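A favour, since you know our structure tokens better than I do. Would you make up a two-line entry for one protein for me to read? Write everything out right here, beneath this request.
=====
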Amino acid sequence: MRKCGGVALAAVLSVVSIFPPVAGSLASLAFAQESRSADTPPSPIPQYIELDHRTPAQFDPADVSLIRAKQREIAGEAAFFGYDLSASGWDYDQSVCPLLPDELVLHYRRPFRDGAQSLFTALVPRSPGRVFVVPVLYRNATPFRSATGSQRSIAVFNRVVPADLAAKAIQPEGKWLDLGLCYADIVYAHANVLNRSGDEVGLARAPLPLLHVSEESSVRGITFTDRNAPGQYLVWNLTLNGKGRVTTATAVQLSDYIARVRNGAALTPKPMPQGKEPPIKVLPPETEPPVKPVPQ
């Protein structure tokens, strides 16, 4: 699976009507990934893209030192949201976001025997600054306010993305999909984004990545599909202002589309149930009423 480090843009489409609106009547133009018909050669463009994820063994030595130095602060922020890092079973990995050069993005997970897990994201600054924790799951349960679109999650994301990178990312030639991937990785973890159509019938109605541009204002919208589990997927919609700051975010869980198969097979005759046949009822023959003579 290819990692995402900047997505090439292709065709400029006109009015978008086949995809859900991002914010009211927002979109009039959309910039999308290239799609190919079924009779063309296989595309070199990967079907799925994701951010680079690293295990602790793959961390840079400087990042390892940073985590050790910030361990107490990370544990304190996690405890504020109900996570006990002193308990056994915690593991973590790193999500490398090109739009967060000054932040170390860590996903902390604690699995349980019943298959559930607790999960949160820690944003650790590489320069002096505050550690932020975004709660995602408590034994598979989402917080009272889901991290996906909570105002706190949006505020934290807007704070850690540098202003100049955010403003450039929302341009048609910018890294707008990277921006969406970074947000999804922070509030949900490990987004696996559908980048082009393929042979999966279940994703026939899943939207490809789109940047929506308003003709009336500087508002932008980002739409993409996250294949988060077999048989289902998330459709993300982010709304951003002219400076590239997220204002709203939603993720709708959908099941795979199942096409109705019609093969034209002949109907199979249904056999009569075996048993005693009902008696045949003989009706009496119809007789015509007598003709009355007409009086002279």
Observations:
- Helices lie at 61-69, 71-80, 151-160, 163-169, 176-187.
- The longest helix spans residues 176-187.
